[in-house]
TrEMBL record:
Biased amino acid composition, Basic residues: 231-252
Official protein name in the record: SH2 domain-containing protein
Source organism, top-level taxon: Eukaryota
Domain SH2: residue ranges: 27-132
Source species: Brugia timori
């Protein structure tokens, strides 16, 4: 850990040259939607690293998502941007605030885990306790083989391909999304097909891909909150709860339906 500030710094692109060591960390989940986090971060202190886009057209950011409360509310899971700064000498430093700088993401994470120091000084429970590893429904990008392009669909380019599952190559059709905002749409689309097709979602550091097995034939922006009638609020709350329950069933009972590639 270093505390000296370089004379001149510039922010490097997260997606252009994210070190392979980061991609190999078990707690790195790639483009994981915010709505899926409650299913993963079950206990206070659980955390993951993911990629997101805070606003349309903005560069993507590396985010640490952490559960700070047992309550079932949006504020129970907090999100910290991990900055990567480069000085004139080309040295990269990782930080969440200006006071503490680290030589690598692993060094940053290990320091907060061992010290039990809140990563957000304003929230005492923002301690990094348990890193949550990738789940069985999350693929590594190396387990997806892209082949010939078949055409273009609603969400972008469609390619033939193969998914390596339990050592076996499964023929699949892959829908590739190049616009980050569409990741959320493609995920919702797959959820709506829960009872019709066994679809798998893939997201890597540059695109989102949807895989549909030939054999089986949010984050991006927080929803705006407006003042609405009590009836409408109750209705929206009911639908959100039903959607969360549905997604939880998918994750826990049918891991083959929704999958992500890192």
């Amino acid at each position: 850990m270093t505390n000296t500030q370089p004379e001149e710094e510039s922010k490097s692109s997260i997606l252009d040259d994210l070190p392979k060591k980061v991609l190999d960390e078990s707690y790195y989940h790639g483009f994981l939607p915010r709505e899926d986090l409650p299913c993963l971060l079950e206990q206070v202190g659980d955390f993951i690293i993911r990629i997101t886009q805070l606003k349309p057209r903005d560069p993507c950011e590396l985010i640490l998502s952490l559960r700070v409360s047992d309550q079932n509310s949006p504020s129970a899971i907090r999100h910290v941007v991990i900055h990567r700064l480069k000085g004139k000498d080309g040295k990269i430093e990782w930080l969440t605030n200006q006071e503490n700088r680290f030589n690598s993401l692993k060094e940053l994470i290990d320091a907060y885990v061992s010290s039990k120091k809140p990563i957000n000084p304003e929230i005492k429970t923002s301690q990094l306790i348990r890193p949550i590893a990738r789940q069985s429904w999350e693929f590594l990008h190396e387990n997806i083989i892209l082949k010939d392009m078949l055409g273009e669909g609603q969400f972008g380019e469609v390619r033939a391909g193969e998914a390596i599952i339990d050592g076996k190559k499964i023929p699949v059709a892959v829908k590739i999304v190049t616009v980050v905002k569409q990741i959320e749409d493609i995920i919702e689309h797959a959820y709506s097909e829960e009872s019709e097709t066994h679809s798998r979602l893939i997201s890597d550091t540059h695109s989102a891909e949807k895989i549909s097995s030939k054999d089986d034939a949010d984050d991006l922006n927080e929803p705006s909150r407006s003042f609405i009638s009590q009836t409408k609020r109750k209705r929206r709350k009911h639908h959100r709860r039903k959607r969360r329950q549905k997604k939880s069933r998918i994750h826990k009972k049918s891991a083959e339906i929704i999958k992500y590639v890192i």
